[in-house]
Task: structure prediction
Amino acid sequence: MLKLEGINKIFNEGTMDEKVALNNINLHLAPGDFVTVIGSNGAGKSTMLNMISGALTPDFGAITIDGKEVTKLPEFKRSQYIGRVFQDPMAGTAPTMTIEENLAIAYSRNKKRGLRFGVNRERKDFFRTSLEKLGLNLENRLNAKVGLLSGGERQALSLLMATFTRPAILLLDEHTAALDPSRAELITNLTKQLVEENNLTTLMVTHNMQQAIDLGNRLIMMDKGQIILEVDESKKPTLTIPDLMTEFEHIRGEKMASDKALLGS
Amino acid sequence: MFLSIFGSVEQGIIYAIMALGVYLTFRVLDFPDLTVDGSFVTGAATAAMMIVLGYHPIIATLIAIVAGFVAGCMTGLLHTKGKINPLLSGILMMIALYSINLRIMGLSAENAIVKPNIQLQSNETIFSQFQSFWSPLGIDDTLSNFVKSLGAAVAPNTWGTVLIVLIITVIIKFVADWFLKTEVGLAIRATGDNKRMIRSFSANTDRYTILGLGISNALVAFSGALIAQYSKFSDVNMGIGMIVIGLASVIIGEAIFGTKTIFRATLAVVFGAIIYRIIYALALRVPWLDSSDMKLITAIIVVLALVIPQLVSKQRDKKRKEKRRLERLAQQRELVTQGGE
Result:
């Protein structure tokens, strides 16, 4: 479903700030795979996601989605196939527009936008039933401006908007990191539910090791722009945090650097 | 007095079309577009030039709208493809249009390449054509007699003009309301609201920025074309400060009528433009003010309209905090007394 082949990226090449962001990344997601990505700050997790979404282009290497090569495809064209939820709850929705208008924008993702009304009765019903799944009573606030919602509500809405058109790939970029623990748990559960319901091929970056272990059928660990560990479907169910710590020390010959990665957040 | 206010309302309704254009860029797209000063004249110049050349006023007006659309798209291209800052894109386009507008008006004369103004005194305009349909109906007399019976000393020459501009502006307002709710309209609004978000839903923000600027300047040029026909001349300098007038209309309207829904917001803009014209007419009646002071007054209106809401909300915030402090104090006192018992 998603294939990364030999992806390389260097930031600020040829200057003092030169930084190897991605070093020969190879990754293959089969349809229905839910892969969690962990790694310390600067490991290249977000850069990898931005490559897939098209916000950044690799220096060289190829990206294929559903058999189509998309390496050079601009972000807005690629996002036909890709649903995304950002870390910042404010990033995924338009604050001055209403809930139903936001949903209408998301609904047009894989259609040509024309001069039809964005919200009509039929769509409204669909929006309402979709919102009911969130259990946040948003289905009764279709005309509320999104800017008035709390961070958790906005993130839940973002998640719904990213998934309800069943994109080929779902990218989650630390999408619970900016929320308080109870809201984060809510979003984590919703993620599980929506991904399963729509059978989405998902790539989720997280700082939280427990979350990375609890969710998904595969796990990869990144460090210094490389994928240093892959845990497949057979080993993932029995994986624990200490396992991951030992593995990291074993591979890198050093203690895991980030306390945040260790403790989760 | 009544007549000058009546005239202001007529003009205000025409300027409201320009203000709707400014609303579209400033508020909806969040793009401070200064092209307006140029594209307003482009509309006026194109319509006047074509009318002088003998084209039907409606055709002339339609071509003027297209000219404005193209001008807006150019600004959009400068910004999105040329990566030039929004303000600078608008300024560049405005300056370029100054020369272009002189050339456009030059097309109306056989013996000149450029022309700084065109007179339409003896030409047919949209208004004169409507008048020839309207006058025979005799509604003017009825209305004027009615107004005089209410105690007005004089009545306007015709009510036809205000009716036709009102019809045009109301239609545009409703079309704008409808457009901003279509799929394309929603995408344009989201482009102004959260570019990153709308890109992640497969919308080409460059295209929507260009389209939004095009539509906005088409409206501005339409307004310019109508003003040229209303006042029977077009002048290369008639657009100076137009953006600030548009902005003043938007801000005044929003302050009075609010922006809760798109319907309310566009209505507010239309009324804002009319109110601005009335303020303008009243200010001109102040004996020690000259008509050339109006630009200064307009600037002051915009500044006040921008600053006062900030001061008000700051004051409100202060009051709220003070109230909370007093409540807390009262609570503590109560606790102390309870503790003492």
Residues 181-198 of chain A form the longest helix (18 residues).
